[in-house]
User: Which sequence fits this backbone?
């Protein structure tokens, strides 16, 4: 840690440090933040000066809207640590609109959103939380008397870029689960072709959100993504690839039942339904709540929450995956992603796959392809 | 002439809420509460594996996360007659306990405080005087003149950029703000401190539940977090010590910051002890099982029903007396829309008949909300910390009686002051303090079990659906931070045949019923003074005192509908 600080001290010009300090930002915290963010973005440490310059000046305008959401992603944001939510709001961005945080309400809140959209047209970052219901003319979600459909289209169109936080905005999420009663869709589906970054997860991991914002500030462009719009720095590998229990999997040691000795000793959760082998996300490396834990560490399998359509394609959650691919390093995120997207499209289209899956003999355990 | 106003969105809540209100003579004569979003999760649950339900239901809400998992697994366990191990009871109590504590503090500082605390006024405070006041009300160490000067400078520098972000366009300077600048500065400093605190103490959910929001270790039959002092992959002595440290941090902040602040702010707003009372009926399901006897066991917060503010007569709670109406909700019932259905027989057939967006006002004579109207013995009921505390207080629970009497004594107010907006906000503090002090007991008991070699966290007897009866039904209860939460499940052939959740904000935010009886929000707003119809700060105070948690927004409309106030940016 201390050597990191020394190198970053060398890389961040004194003039920038003085400027942020005048704004009431602790310079040590600022250096730490810039260094960690540079690392999180997988950039050479020499880039830390550029990161610092970008975040010191920017306070990029951000509009954060919620549609069919549970506010879980807003809450996840409040758990952010490097930097904290307070630091982000006060120092890093200018949060023009957020229903959970903002002081104003009603017409004054709506007005703030409208003004920000006009004043920062083409420059603001839009954060969308929740899916958008298109059924029956969009009557299933309205704010200030305006439907989510019209609101979202307008905000996306005028944004520099849109960040979809959580699986609902990214892929439709739980409202889109079969039979999708409200015709819920993702931002990508509502506004095809718009510059969108998807940060799925239920909820989003705050660290991935922070890293994405800083990437945009630093380079003025969006991070590289897979075919599903997910940044490669966070969704480039499967849970299974970096899982702390991978050794047990390779050794054929599987937890047999919740609470038994194999489970208590941390054996692989695959037979208890873990979806880690088919899920692309960096949970095992960054974990949650400042690195305290993540589902597998706490003894529960991954439910695949960063994958499209996971409520239908990954459930029943306690049934082991019907077949696990060969785990070859040649399986890139893109290949697997395309496969899943196709499966999801079918599920959305006719509800057939998911419904049959659920209503048939889903309780029966399938044969497992690879098992010692 | 009567005025009609609308507030939409109501911010600093979970979800989309709209309040429409009619003003007469500077007061609210009538109000309508509308939730403007619908997701249909109950419909999505049909046909699925009951053991999966808690993952789905937890996503009802990400603010009061955990609570819908808790109610769901209890509903399935009730249906299948599953007895959970003692360790699972204790882990659940700890998860629920810290959820209540953390959620109440976030509510007070981040969702509710700005209704009472004017942060612009805090910039005018004298830091030395602020320090003096802070030190007179608490031993909290962050109270020096330099500290408050630092906070003030930082916020002044922020304001000096001219970009106020989430603090722009608010009601700063409104005549209803009554605190001196120094108390406003204390509130502002603690608003920022609480933001740091909340993300630390909730790490208990990460340790026991894998993450927060949306912990993932719930199981029908127990918990999936293993307990074993001889394993590095389980809850061991090290993690128990970590939880203890976080519980102490939580308790210290509540005792030294939250409660002293509550008691410092309340005296300036004692008139709000006479505003916002509402229905006067209170319902609590009770919670926090103190032993592992069959059924619910003995509950720390008891069950009960209070009608017409009659604290001398707490009636037993019977879930069979609950019905839901859709007369003014965007749903239809097969037996007709004026019928009342018990949740086991509940129907969620949505049919939107409101105005096509964009719209200015809802037709409040017809259907006007996505929230149904639950009733107990056909009466509207308020739920929440106030209901929970009133039932426990009336039943003489010692911890509750002591704490309530302490708070009332400090404010020099009678028990009847609790039936109000201020009472609701004070009861939340009482609830928080009691649980912050109670949590360590459950941790001690868990450590004691571990010391005696009891590691069981999961009862697997009924895990396999082959062991289930062909048909079963169950009721899952929980006292969530926002109050009485019930899930009702019917299981047929190993699948969910019907699932209904009646959540705290359904009870509180529901629209009128077939008899025209208003829901608790609607009733509580009647008589509320509105100093400036273009800045209805007073509506936020009463609505926020309930801690709304919807998936939608509130508006205020005035009654005649002839004159519509357009509220402009300040």
Assistant:
């Amino acid at each position: 840690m201390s050597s990191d600080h020394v190198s970053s001290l060398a890389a961040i010009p004194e003039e920038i440090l003085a400027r942020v300090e005048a704004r009431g930002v602790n310079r040590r915290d600022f250096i730490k933040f810039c260094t960690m963010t540079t690392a999180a973005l997988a950039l050479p440490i020499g880039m830390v000066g550029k990161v610092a310059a970008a975040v010191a000046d920017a306070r990029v305008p951000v509009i954060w809207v919620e549609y069919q959401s549970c506010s879980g992603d807003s809450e996840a944001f409040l758990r952010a640590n490097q930097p904290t939510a307070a630091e982000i709001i006060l120092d890093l961005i200018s949060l023009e609109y957020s229903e959970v945080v903002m002081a104003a309400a009603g017409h004054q809140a709506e007005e703030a959103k409208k003004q920000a959209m006009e004043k920062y047209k083409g420059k603001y970052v839009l954060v969308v939380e929740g899916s958008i219901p298109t059924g029956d003319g969009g009557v299933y979600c309205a704010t200030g008397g305006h439907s989510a459909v019209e609101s979202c289209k307008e905000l996306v169109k005028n944004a520099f870029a849109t960040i979809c936080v959580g699986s609902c905005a990214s892929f439709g999420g739980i409202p889109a689960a079969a039979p999708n009663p409200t015709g819920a869709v993702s931002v990508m589906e509502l506004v095809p072709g718009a510059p969108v970054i998807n940060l799925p997860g239920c909820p989003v991991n705050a660290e991935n959100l922070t890293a994405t914002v800083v990437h945009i500030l630093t380079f003025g462009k969006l991070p590289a993504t897979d075919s599903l719009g997910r940044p490669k720095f966070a969704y480039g590998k499967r849970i299974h690839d970096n899982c702390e229990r991978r050794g047990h999997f390779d050794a054929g040691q599987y937890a047999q039942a919740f609470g038994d000795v194999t489970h208590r000793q941390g054996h692989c959760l695959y037979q208890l339904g873990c979806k880690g082998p088919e899920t692309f996300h960096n949970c095992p490396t960054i974990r949650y709540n400042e690195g305290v834990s993540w589902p597998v560490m706490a003894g529960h399998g991954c439910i695949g929450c960063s994958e499209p359509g996971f409520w239908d394609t990954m459930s029943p959650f306690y049934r082991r995956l019907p077949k696990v691919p060969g785990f070859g390093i040649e399986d890139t995120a893109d290949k697997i992603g395309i496969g899943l997207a196709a499966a999801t499209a079918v599920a959305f289209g006719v509800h057939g796959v998911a419904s049959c899956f659920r209503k048939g003999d889903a309780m029966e355990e399938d044969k497992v392809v690879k098992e010692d | 002439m009567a005025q009609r106003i609308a507030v939409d969105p109501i911010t600093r809540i979970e979800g989309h809420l709209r309040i429409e209100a009619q003003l007469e003579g500077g007061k609210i004569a009538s109000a309508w509460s509308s939730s403007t979003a619908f997701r249909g999760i109950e419909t999505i649950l049909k046909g699925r594996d009951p053991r999966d339900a808690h993952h789905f239901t937890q996503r009802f809400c990400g603010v009061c996360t955990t609570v819908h998992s808790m109610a769901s697994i209890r509903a399935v366990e009730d249906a299948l007659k599953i007895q959970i191990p003692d360790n699972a009871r204790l882990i659940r109590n700890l998860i629920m306990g810290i959820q209540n504590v953390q959620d109440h503090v976030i509510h007070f500082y981040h969702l509710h405080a700005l209704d009472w605390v004017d942060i612009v006024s805090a910039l005018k405070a004298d830091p030395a005087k602020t320090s003096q006041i802070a030190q007179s009300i608490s031993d909290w160490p962050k109270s020096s003149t330099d500290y408050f000067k630092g906070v003030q400078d930082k916020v002044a520098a922020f304001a000096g950029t001219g970009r106020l972000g989430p603090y722009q366009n608010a009601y700063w300077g409104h005549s209803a703000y009554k605190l001196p600048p120094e108390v406003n500065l204390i509130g502002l400093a603690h608003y920022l401190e609480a933001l740091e605190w909340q993300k630390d103490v909730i790490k208990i959910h990460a340790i026991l539940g894998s993450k927060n929001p949306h912990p993932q270790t719930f199981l029908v039959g127990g918990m999936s977090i293993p307990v074993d002092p001889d394993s590095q992959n389980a809850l061991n002595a090290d993690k128990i010590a970590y939880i203890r440290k976080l519980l102490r941090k939580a308790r210290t902040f509540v005792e030294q910051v939250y409660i002293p602040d509550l008691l410092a702010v309340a005296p300036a707003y004692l008139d709000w002890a006479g505003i916002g009372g509402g229905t006067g009926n209170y319902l609590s399901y009770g919670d926090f099982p103190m032993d592992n006897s069959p059924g619910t066991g003995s509950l720390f917060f008891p069950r009960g029903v209070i009608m017409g503010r009659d604290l001398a007569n707490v009636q037993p709670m019977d879930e069979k007396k609950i019905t839901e109406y859709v007369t003014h909700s965007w749903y239809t019932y097969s037996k007709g829309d004026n019928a009342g259905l018990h949740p086991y027989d509940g129907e969620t057939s949505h049919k939107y008949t409101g105005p096509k967006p964009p719209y200015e006002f809802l037709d409040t004579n017809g259907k006007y909300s996505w929230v149904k109207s639950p009733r107990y013995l056909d009466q509207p009921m308020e739920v929440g910390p106030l209901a929970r505390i009133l039932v426990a207080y009336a039943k003489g629970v010692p911890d509750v009686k002591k704490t309530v009497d302490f708070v009332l004594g400090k404010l020099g107010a009678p028990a009847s002051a609790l039936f109000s907006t201020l009472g609701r906000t004070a009861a939340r503090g009482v609830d928080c303090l009691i649980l912050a002090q109670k949590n360590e007991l459950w941790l001690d008991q868990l450590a004691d079990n571990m010391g005696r070699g009891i590691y069981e966290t999961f009862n697997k007897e009924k895990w396999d659906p082959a062991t289930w009866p062909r048909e079963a039904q169950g009721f899952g209860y929980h006292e969530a931070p926002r109050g009485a939460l019930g899930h009702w499940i019917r299981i047929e052939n190993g699948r969910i045949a019907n699932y209904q959740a009646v959540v705290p904000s359904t009870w509180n935010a529901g629209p009128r019923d077939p008899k025209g009886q208003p829901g608790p929000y609607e009733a509580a707003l009647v008589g509320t003074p509105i100093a400036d119809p273009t800045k209805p700060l007073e509506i936020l105070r009463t609505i926020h005192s309930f801690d709304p948690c919807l998936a939608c927004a509130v508006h205020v409309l005035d009654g005649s509908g002839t004159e519509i106030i357009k509220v402009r940016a300040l």
Chain A touches chain B through 102 residues (CB under 8 Å). The beta strands of chain A are 60-66, 93-98, 125-129, 132-133, 142-143, 146-147, 161-165, 184-185, 196-199. Residues 1-57 of chain A form one domain. Confidence is low (pLDDT under 50) at residues 1-10, 326-372 of chain A.
